[in-house]
């Protein structure tokens, strides 16, 4: 099952997601990126129904860009989170999106922030959060080792502890994870944690 | 599994001598898992009116946003704040509008009306008002809260004694309910000031 988790550190926020695209018992793809860069300083990690996940996150991403084109300035993380919640909430009683979202962003005057947004549009600003079966393990690890104002090294160390715990204790543990961070210099991919690499395409 | 018990909540409002208290728990959960321990369930509509929303978190957030919108429009048109009785009728009407597809919330409304007379009321998810002279309760811990309030309540309590009574009633009730707790949030409102206090209870 899909694992997404994230936490806020000292001047940055990190979001981690597994990278398996799964259909029943088949792994279609071992390197599916489930963390979208919404704009220069925002990350959206999503888990849930695959079609809804891609559709909805891309819809939000395009609306972020539209706002920026129209108004000349990007949305704050709080505004982006509330806009996303509004879209999920208005679709909820018509044609609900089955997507759980962790929205991380960096604002110049506020610093890093992380928002928990589940598929029924419950929004809450948090320091650490997780979705999926992996949440039972990653939340417990974070409850034990997290403290506010962690440095990047400490945070990545905690992320690795969570990944190790998921790999060892979850029966359907995903093999590969991607880690993305957002800080004052922007949102970017930090690292991959792979145990299974995709077979290389033959060159003849 | 009832949809009203998905997130978990406990709300109570109590009348004192020219004052009232409104209190809630602080847990945000998804069934058995706790997501956050600082989730706000009581909102201030204007300086003498408070609204608590128990039940499904997403509907509580949506309903709050709609009510703030309606109250702001009222303030622009009438150039004054809404009376608590009027606000209660507004909430009731908004809820009954969705009679055949309701918001899964139980609101608790507490305010100071004309001549600083305290007003409290609760309603069910389709807007059936229940006015009370002493206390009203809502949420997953409501049954325990009824018992605790009934035994601890005295009419015409001063603000300090009212705070103690409401706090003890809330903490003892949420300790018997696994879906609510993780502290308490108490507002004691008199004609001159609003005192907000956080309670530390059993964090489990």
TrEMBL record, chain A:
Non-catalytic component of the proteasome, a multicatalytic proteinase complex which is characterized by its ability to cleave peptides with Arg, Phe, Tyr, Leu, and Glu adjacent to the leaving group at neutral or slightly basic pH. The proteasome has an ATP-dependent proteolytic activity. The keyword Coiled coil does not apply. InterPro entries: Ntn_hydrolases_N, Proteasome_alpha, Proteasome_beta2, Proteasome_sua/b, Proteasome_suB-type. Pfam families: Proteasome. It is found in: Cytoplasm; Nucleus. Component of the 20S core complex of the 26S proteasome. The 26S proteasome is composed of a core protease (CP), known as the 20S proteasome, capped at one or both ends by the 19S regulatory particle (RP/PA700). The 20S proteasome core is composed of 28 subunits that are arranged in four stacked rings, resulting in a barrel-shaped structure. The two end rings are each formed by seven alpha subunits, and the two central rings are each formed by seven beta subunits. The catalytic chamber with the active sites is on the inside of the barrel. GO terms for biological process: proteasomal protein catabolic process. This is Proteasome subunit beta. Belongs to the peptidase T1B family. GO terms for cellular component: cytoplasm; nucleus; proteasome core complex. Keywords: Cytoplasm, Nucleus, Proteasome.
TrEMBL record, chain B:
This is Proteasome subunit beta. Signal peptide: none annotated. Component of the proteasome complex. The keyword Nucleus applies. One of its GO terms (biological process) is proteasome-mediated ubiquitin-dependent protein catabolic process. It holds the Pfam family Proteasome. InterPro entries: Ntn_hydrolases_N, Proteasome_beta_3, Proteasome_bsu_CS, Proteasome_sua/b, Proteasome_suB-type. The lineage of its organism: Eukaryota, Viridiplantae, Streptophyta, Embryophyta, Tracheophyta. Coiled coil: none annotated. It comes from the Eukaryota. GO terms for cellular component: cytoplasm; nucleus; proteasome core complex, beta-subunit complex.
């Amino acid at each position: 099952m899909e694992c997404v988790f994230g936490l806020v550190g000292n001047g940055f926020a990190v979001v981690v997601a597994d990278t398996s695209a799964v259909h029943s018992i088949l792994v279609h793809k071992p390197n599916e990126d489930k963390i979208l860069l919404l704009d220069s300083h925002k990350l959206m990690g999503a888990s849930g129904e695959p079609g809804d996940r891609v559709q909805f996150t891309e819809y939000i991403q395009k609306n972020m860009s539209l706002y920026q084109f129209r108004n000349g300035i990007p949305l704050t993380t709080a505004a982006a989170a509330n806009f996303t919640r509004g879209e999920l909430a208005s679709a909820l009683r018509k044609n609900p999106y089955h997507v759980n979202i962790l929205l991380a962003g960096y604002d110049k005057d506020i610093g890093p922030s992380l928002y928990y947004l589940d598929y029924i549009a419950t929004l809450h600003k948090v320091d650490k959060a997780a979705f999926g079966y992996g949440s039972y393990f990653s939340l417990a690890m974070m409850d034990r080792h997290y403290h506010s104002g962690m440095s990047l090294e400490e945070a990545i160390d905690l992320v690795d502890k969570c990944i190790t715990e998921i790999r060892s204790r979850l029966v359907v543990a995903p093999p590969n994870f991607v880690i993305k961070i957002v800080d004052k210099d922007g949102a970017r991919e930090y690292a991959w944690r792979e145990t299974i690499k995709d077979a290389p395409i033959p060159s003849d | 599994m009832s949809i009203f018990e998905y997130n978990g909540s406990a709300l109570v409002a109590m009348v004192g001598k020219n004052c009232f208290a409104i209190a809630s728990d602080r847990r945000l959960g998804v069934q058995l898992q706790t997501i956050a321990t600082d989730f706000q369930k009581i909102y201030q509509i204007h300086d003498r009116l408070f609204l608590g929303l128990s039940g499904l978190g997403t509907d509580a957030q949506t309903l709050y946003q709609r009510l703030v919108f309606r109250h702001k429009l009222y303030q622009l048109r009438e150039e004054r704040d809404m009376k608590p009785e009027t606000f209660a009728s507004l909430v009731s009407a908004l809820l009954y509008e969705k009679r055949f597809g309701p918001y899964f919330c139980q609101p608790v409304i507490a305010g100071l009306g004309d001549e600083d007379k305290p007003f409290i009321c609760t309603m069910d998810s389709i807007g059936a008002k229940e006015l009370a002279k002493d206390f009203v309760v809502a949420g997953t811990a409501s049954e325990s809260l009824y018992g605790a309030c009934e035994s601890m309540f005295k009419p015409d309590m001063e603000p300090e004694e009212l705070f103690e009574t409401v706090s003890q009633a809330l903490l003892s009730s949420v300790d018997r309910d696994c879906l609510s707790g993780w502290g308490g949030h108490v507002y004691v409102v008199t004609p001159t000031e609003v005192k907000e206090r956080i309670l530390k209870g059993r964090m489990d």
